[in-house]
Each structure stands twice: as structure tokens, then as C-alpha cells.
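Before relying on records like the one below, remember that each one covers exactly one chain. Contacts with other chains, cofactors or solvent are not represented anywhere in the record.
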Amino acid sequence: MSIHFIGIGGIGVSALAKYYLAIGAEVSGSDLAHSEITADLAAAGARVILGPHSAFNLAQATDRVIYTAAAPKTNPELKEAKRRKIPTQTYAEAVGDLTREFKTITISGSHGKSTTTAMTALVLEDGWCDPTVIIGTKMPEYGDSNFRHGRGGHLVLEADEWNKSFLHYSPQIAAITNIDAEHLDTYKTAAGVEKAFTEYLAKVPADGAIIANAGDARTARVVKKFGGRVKWYSADSRDGTMVKNILKVPGRHNVSNALAAQAVGRALGIPESAILQALSRFHGTWRRFEFKGMFNGGHIFNDYGHHPTEIASTLAAARERFPLRRVWCVFQPHQYQRLKYLWSDFLNAFDLADRVVLLPVYDVAGRETAAAKNAVNSEKLSDALAARGKRVSHAASFTDATSLLRAEVRKGDAVLLMGAGDIYLLADDLMK
């Protein structure tokens, strides 16, 4: 079997490519630029082609093409596959097929999916289930990989709602961390998001389980329709107090994430001792409150948070971990569309930061509109935050941000570099 992946460097597509490498398939793939992920795939045996997409990238022996949903219909490799009548699937369609080959546990929700998926994977591993894992981040326990090849019959999968991807999946157990007004370029309204989650949960069979956060109002409203299949968890429960005492990662949101993983373990009959052991050895994942080093005596963290709810939760966790210290939020907005849809929420998101530094918006190719770009930008957000009394600066580039931080960060500060774009590279600049 020879499979070609269009967009092989993506965090989800790359994990699926690693799965096929693990079962002995020949894997090739293309991506526009080099990254740690493409380098890892090449080292694992994939043929990775970097640079502009081309019909010549498809080997003659290619049996199947799997492509990122971000690839346009005009992509030359996709067009060549169709010309040669090679079967094609989106990433979500291909993963959907996989979910029907395993006893699949999906982790979905607007926030906390990756962390909860990682915790759940460790719970199943310590519970002797030997799971296969596909996750949208890198885990240190798996050699900084976003994939684990297990020999058991379980698949632990991070189920993303963007572009309605999760509607292709067939979970036996579905855990939901929360439901928020997110991916409004796809859903338009919060009601549209709720409708999609309702469709998704309807795929859980009668003998399956829905793991749901009782502390999230939208989740409670959607999930209550499913009756006896639902197993609730709450950060305000006695379990929440117990889990908080063993966790190595800060924040109420992480207590909630851990309780979801605990509930999955219980649904599978995993011993409580194994569940607690797994949660206690979780130290975080790539770009989730990830400590990078010291700069000017300040602690530098990378965090993927890009939605107002995520920003507020992470700042609260920083306050918990660094009481009586200055907390910085260096934020790179991700997508003009998101900034426009959630403008009023962004104005409140930074309340717990002492200093805010805003970088230019990370432009997401193929997901932007001219109207959004004309309506909002980082400079306007900076002005609006300043008008509310927030101490905020705008940095036109990573170089400018580095200069500002070098001049003003002092010993004991906590500096969070936040966003879903390439802001994580700023940490590399600071560490130099």
C-alpha cells in the first residue's frame, strides 16, 4: 500500500501518516515548508517533498491520496490524483474509517482537547489497554510525537470540530470538555456549534458512553438529550479536589481536563490506582503552558491558546502558579475572522495580565475575508485595550517584541507567548 499525503506537515495529517508508516505502508507527502514535524517524518521513513505542490510529487505506484481540508480543489496533486482515478480522502474521512476499525475514544470540545487527549492516552496506557493515539500536539512521553502505535484495540483520538471534521468519526466513548462560540467561520453562531455537537454525539451507540462536563452550560444543554449514556464530571466535586492535589500542571481548566480523562478510565473499568498514577505523571504537552527557559530572570512559556476563553484560563493558571508576580501576555491573534467574530470577548480576555504585548494577526491562508481584514487588526485591539486602562504595547515584529521584552522583563516575571500561529518561534529567539 502506497499513500500520499497532501499537507503532511500538519499536526493531524502527520499523525495519520505515522500510523500508516507503523503498519508498514509506503508513505510520501508534500508540504510547503520544512518543520520539526516534516523532519521527524523523513527520519521515520516517509518520502517528504518540500516546496510548491506539483503533480510530479505523486509516485506512479500511489494507491491512495489523503489531503488536508485546507487544500483547494485546484491543488495540482489533488487534480493529478483525480486524473489518474486514484482514490482520495480528506484527513477527517480517512480518520473516520480508522475509528470504525478500533474501539474509539474521541476527545472533543472547544478548549482543552489536546491536553485531555494526552491525559486520556496515559490513563489507557497505565491501565494496560496499549492504545493507539492520534493527538493534535506533541507528547514528551511519546518522544515528542503526536502519535503512539499501540497493539491493543483502542484508539484515543483528538476530535476537532473545525470544518465539521468530527462528524466523520464513530466513537464508542465521546468525551466533551466544553462547547464555546469557536470556529464561527464554519458555524456562524454558537447555536450552529451546538447543533454540530448534537449530531456528533448522536453517533455514540446505545452501549457506548458520553463523558460530559457538568460545569459547562452549553455542554449540559446539548448532552442532557442523550440520557443514560451520559457520565458527568465536575471540577467542583470531591474528585476535583483529589485530582488537583496530584496534578503537576496548574489551573482549574486542567483539573477539569483530568476529570474527563478519569471518567473515561472509569467507563473502561481501569483501576482507580492506574488512573491516578497516569494523571500524576502528566507534565504537559507541546505549546500548552510549556516552559521554555529563563530570559532576563523571567520565566518564558509557550501556549497555544488563541480563543478568549483559553487566554483567560491560561492567565488564571499563571496567576495560580506565580502569585504576587508580574504576568505578561505576548499575544499573536490567530485569524482575522476569529478576531472580528469575538472582538468583545477579546477585550475582556487579558484582564489578569499585568502587561500585554500584541503582535500582528497571523493570517490563515484560505480562511480569511477582505471584510474581516478591513474591520480588525492588532493595532485596533491595542487601542481598544488601552482605552479600557490596560497597559498594552504593539510590536510590529518578533524583533520589536524581543527588544521590548529585553528592556522591560525583570526577575520573577512570568511571560506567556500565546497564539496558534508561529509565535512559538519567538521563544527560540529569546532563548538565543
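The domain at 100-280 is CATH 3.40.1190.10 (UDP-N-acetylmuramoyl-L-alanine:D-glutamate ligase).
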